[in-house]
Amino acid sequence: YGVTSYDIGTGFGHFAIATEDVYKLVEIVRAHGGNVTREPGPVKGGTSVIAFVKDPDGYAFEL
């Protein structure tokens, strides 16, 4: 409604979404034109697999 620009600010780092298959979800995001900023893989020093993506507004999501 009349807003021409929007600043997402620095009020948080990222959202996190749990999924059974990070690799599959990243492919779905990519197939829909999403921006994958960290490819799926284990966290440093651990075995949990994560990835990061950004939505069209620039919000970061950890999968």
From TrEMBL:
Gene Ontology CC annotation, any one: cytoplasm
Pfam families membership: Glyoxalase
SUPFAM superfamilies found in the cross-reference section: Glyoxalase/Bleomycin resistance protein/Dihydroxybiphenyl dioxygenase
Domain of life: Eukaryota
Keyword annotations from UniProtKB, A to Z: Lyase, Metal-binding
Domain VOC intervals: 1-63
Keyword Metal-binding: yes
Name of the protein in question: Lactoylglutathione lyase-like protein
GO biological processes: methylglyoxal catabolic process to D-lactate via S-lactoyl-glutathione
Native organism taxonomy: Eukaryota, Viridiplantae, Streptophyta, Embryophyta, Tracheophyta
GO molecular function: lactoylglutathione lyase activity; metal ion binding
